[in-house]
Structures are given as structure tokens and as C-alpha cells.
């Protein structure tokens, strides 16, 4: 009734794809190492929220627009690349001082920005939309591709596995870097590295072909 075939194969493929390092992995690692556990977790949740959007787009057929229209693909791709470049430049220009304790209001604002950045980084990547559009139908029975239910079931399954891995990655990376972040000079270097990572991901996205 679900219209899904070869679920076991899908699970194996999903695990392999999720464990393969990509732009999302680099983004989460950068945040976790430079800014700590909570920043890493919020980045992972932000990216997962972006995945939810792509799953809905695929289920509703909106991803077909990116598949069929070169103009739409280029617009979304360039918006994503520009956003990451700006984010990277702002991070590189940020002045780091010895004061790491933020007041509660500023801390909440920073955490909100980190979460939103994770969402936008994923949503503005048209390759993710095309990935779901190309990957999920392979496990849907012919004649059921017009239904949104198989897309949602497979997408949510992929999302759960991916979110679990992203959170584990964030926790591991932040714990590994916890000690070195206390050093002012190393903290500054980590922030600069994170900015370079953002710019590199943006360049990679800008050079992507449909």
C-alpha cells in the first residue's frame, strides 16, 4: 500500500550516502569544532530542517522545476553560493577576544542565527533537491510516483538516519575540540578556518552543474 520496493536496499544505500562526507558534514564539523556542542547540534538540526523542506518539495513535485528549468537551478544555486560566501567573509572578519561568556540575549540570537544558517545552507542547495528527486523514485513502484506518500516515507526514513548521524558527528567533534577552544589564539584560528570552510562550500556550490 505504501508503493515502496526494495526497502532493504534503500536503507543500505541511505547509510552509505549519509556516511559519505559532503558539504553538510563539513558545515557541521566547522561549527562544532569552532563554536562548540550547542552550535554543532543546532547546525545539524538546521540542516535536517532543510532536508524536510526538500522532502516536501519532492513529494509535491516542486523539485521538478529545478530539474526542468536551468534558470531556476542557476538562481537557487547562486543564491546559496552567495549566502555561504557572505557568511564566510563575516566569520573571517569577526574579531575574537578573550571574552567567551555571552549574555543570555546575545547567546540566544547567536544560536538562532546558527540554526537559520543551517536551514538556508541546505534549502539553497539545488543539488540536494535534485538528489531526492533522482534517488527516491528508484525505490517507488511504477504507478505510485504520482503519490506523495512513498516520497514522504522514504524521505523521513532518510531524514531520521541522517539526523542521528549529524548529531553524533556534532557531539564527537565538539568534545574533541573542547579543550583547544579555550585557548584564545586557537579559538581565533578555528573561527578563521570555519569562515574558509563556508567560502569553500559556496565556491563548490557555485561551480556545480545541473
Structural account:
This protein has 210 residues and is mostly helical. Helix content is 80%, strand content 0%. The protein is built from 9 helices and no strands. Helix 2 runs antiparallel to helix 3 (37-60) and helix 3 packs across helix 7.
Structure in a nutshell:
This protein is mostly helical. It has nine helices and no strands.
Q: Total number of helical segments?
A: 9
Structural class call reads mainly alpha
Q: Write the H/E string, N to C.
A: HHHHHHHHH
User: What do the pLDDT scores average to?
Assistant: 80
Strand content: under 5%
Count the strands? 0
Shape: globular
Estimated helix fraction: over 70%
Distance between the termini: 33 Å
Radius of gyration: 18 Å
Low-confidence stretches: 98-104
What about the largest sheet? Answer: none
